[in-house]
């Protein structure tokens, strides 16, 4: 057992730096602190321990017996601390980093992930649309909700949904009287350049100032919503598509699980890497001499099953 009371690791490292250098100025330089601060720390440590750690007035600096003993224990503590840190790093699950471009709302999927996989952190990273491919290829994120198109070379992408374009106009603009408009209705309007989705907020600010109108994806209009502006669907211009993308060489169990969450798979889906496969119960044998009755055919109402609505 240590003959010294508990000492915080930082002060131990500062003491050990002097003990190994046997020179206060060099040790202070290596620690990036002032020599005076280092000297005061050692003096306070000696006062706390009630013993000298360095021989007073010795040139060059020399350790006392107590100083040598503390240095040995300090090295053991450092080794143990590093081993514990390495062990924690190995056992702690790595976070799944999921990026998302402006306009994409990930709250629903974050909530489901937290409920199903509480031991695997989900790190959500806001990514500019201009950086969506770079963030994936550089490894800043494991997956990303992107706005298509993207370069599909060495890149997987699952299209999720399409966004209707809307025109953003001042609240008192005549277009606000309609539910939807066509491009012909905007022929006499000054259209703001919104090709750069990341700068759409600035274009919408100009619309609020009375300078023209802006056509943006619906989610971008909602993201930059203002009380003095309204937006209406544009029926005859290109929509945009949101997809979940990731490099195939980084497909892992957490990546597969997140795909399942986004696609709406159940928690115990057989397609999930951690899904539980349930075995069918064995049939009970029939008593001798008795034959099982045939199952009744289900009756139908004559109605066709309802078809799902297309998003």
UniProtKB/TrEMBL annotation:
Domain HTH lysR-type: from-to ranges: 7-64
Pfam families, alphabetized: HTH_1, LysR_substrate
Keyword DNA-binding: yes
Protein's UniProt keywords contain DNA-binding: yes
InterPro entries, per database record: LysR_HTH_N, LysR_subst-bd, WH-like_DNA-bd_sf, WH_DNA-bd_sf
PROSITE patterns: HTH_LYSR (PS50931)
Alphabetically ordered keywords of this record: Activator, DNA-binding, Transcription, Transcription regulation
Basic residues composition-biased segments: 285-296
Residue segments, region Disordered: 260-311
UniProt record similarity statement: Belongs to the LysR transcriptional regulatory family.
Protein name: LysR family transcriptional regulator
Lineage, top ranks: Bacteria, Bacillati, Actinomycetota, Actinomycetes, Mycobacteriales
